[in-house]
Amino acid sequence: MDVFAEINWSAVARNAFDEKIHDLELIKKFKSMSTLTEEDALRFGAELNKSLSKRRMRK
């Protein structure tokens, strides 16, 4: 950080916090409207991971 003393690190951090808060609010809103159960989400995640892994192995 000392190398880039001209950067306003407080502003950088504030922007990062704002983005994270926005992302969390979006997730919370999406989650409140979802009918997907946690079990379904975990199952879909596992299937997606397996599919992506197979795709990566082919390349």
Could you describe the 3D structure shown?
By secondary structure, the protein is mainly alpha-helical. The chain has one domain (2-58). Helices cover 78% and strands 0% of the residues. The protein is built from two helices and no strands. It has helices spanning 9-33, 38-58. The longest helix is centred in the middle third of the chain and has 25 residues, at 9-33. It is flat and about 45 Å long. The protein starts with 8 loop residues before the first helix and ends with a helix.
Features:
flat, 78% helix, mainly alpha
The N- and C-terminal alpha carbons lie at a distance of 38 Å
The domain count comes to 1
The helical percent reads over 70%
Name the helix and strand elements from N-terminus to C-terminus, one letter apiece.
Answer: HH
Low-confidence stretches are none
SSE topology:
Elements: H1 9-33, H2 38-58
Summarize the structure.
This protein is mostly helical and 59 residues long.
